[in-house]
Design a protein that fits this description.
The chain is an alpha+beta fold. Helix content is 50%, strand content 12%. The protein is built from 4 helices and 3 strands; from the N terminus they run ααβααββ. A hairpin with a 5-residue loop joins strand 2 (85-90) and strand 3 (96-100).
Length: 105
């Protein structure tokens, strides 16, 4: 018995596999990356941090090149979109304070 070739099933299966790969890459965080450093820092301090504060702490530890918020702000925004952190408040300068979501604590 030969199975019939169904192009729609093949296309659907291929798209599903591609989406799974994308989702896995999105969740996978490389050790030593800024995302990994930020997650570790938020776990350590156990309180919300701004991009300014997280950059300054990581700079003082020699983990990033400059103490400017631009070191961590883009990663925090990406991580917010990915559901890793959430904005909970703002600091006195109007910058968002971030904490880890329940799934990442």
């Amino acid at each position: 018995m030969s199975e019939t070739y169904n192009e729609a099933d093949y296309r659907s299966d291929r798209i599903t596999k591609e989406n799974r790969k994308k989702a896995h890459k999105k969740i996978q965080i490389k050790k030593g990356s800024k995302r990994h450093l930020i997650i570790g820092l938020l776990r350590e301090v156990k309180r919300p941090l701004s991009a300014d504060e997280s950059s300054l702490i990581l700079y003082n530890r020699g983990k990033v090149k400059t103490p400017h918020r631009q070191e961590t702000a883009p990663r925090l925004s990406e991580m917010k979109d990915d559901g890793i952190v959430r904005a909970v408040d703002t600091d006195i300068y109007g910058h968002s304070l971030y904490e880890l979501t329940e799934a990442w604590r």
